[in-house]
Amino acid sequence: MSASSPPSSRGTALVTGASSGIGKVYAQKLARRGYDLVLVARNRSRLDELAAAITTETGRTVDVMPADLSKAEDVATVAARLVDDPAITLLVNNAGSGTEGPIVGADPAKIDAMLDLNVRALTRLAVAAVNAFSARGRGTLVNIASVVALVPERFPGAYAATKAYVLALTQSLVAELDGGPVRLQAVMPGLTRTEFFDRAGLDINALPAHMLMAPEDLVEAALRGLEAGEIYTIPSLPDVSGWDELTASRMKLAPDLSHSKPAVRYGTGDMAGG
């Protein structure tokens, strides 16, 4: 679409981790769908280059917001933008990092940095977004989780735990905000061809090619899922019934997850104290 005839605006989307990979593709595709943009990442030059290209292609207004979301003060600045800018109707909570290798022998400082970005920053921005959107009467929060949240046994280290947190946070928000004006989506990518692997010290070429999805395909599937009303989107999953069955199995446990006495199989009877 030419810059002279942009589509009607759907509000402004704030995308974190927008300078490369999944975040960059989200920015491009959201602009083509009619969103103005606020692009958040550490690399100012990459953001400026992307903003110029998107504006030239789509005619949309693109604001760049350099920020290091591993730093509390930068997170607070982005959160304030979500609260103070009534034009923002969508947050794509995408920024994240991974650590290389298993926990045994890992550098604790690297794990702490990952937690700051994947958990603390994401939560702070999610909280700001859902409160702002609730007050405005509309808005959408997209949290980028990962399929490793569902199979942490297959991925060493603490990364899978951070993505399980993202999924659990979204599930909790879905229940809390049910019936309200805020839409939610958790996107669970599988292996994706991005710079994530280089930054985590992993060799992408060592991974099976048939398991690696292009970020363009991933984001397009995620956006189509959002437009179709999906709350939980696993772009690689052939049949959504698999997710439905997993959810049903979890909820079947709910009535027995908390009782006043231990289960009979532990043989404690009515003994108190032990």
TrEMBL record:
Top-level taxon: Bacteria
UniProt protein name: Short-subunit dehydrogenase
UniProt keyword annotations, A-Z: Oxidoreductase
UniProt organism field: Ancylobacter amanitiformis
PANTHER family in UniProt: ALCOHOL DEHYDROGENASE (PTHR42901)
InterPro entries: NAD(P)-bd_dom_sf (IPR036291), SDR_fam (IPR002347)
Record keyword Oxidoreductase present: yes
Protein family per UniProt: Belongs to the short-chain dehydrogenases/reductases (SDR) family.
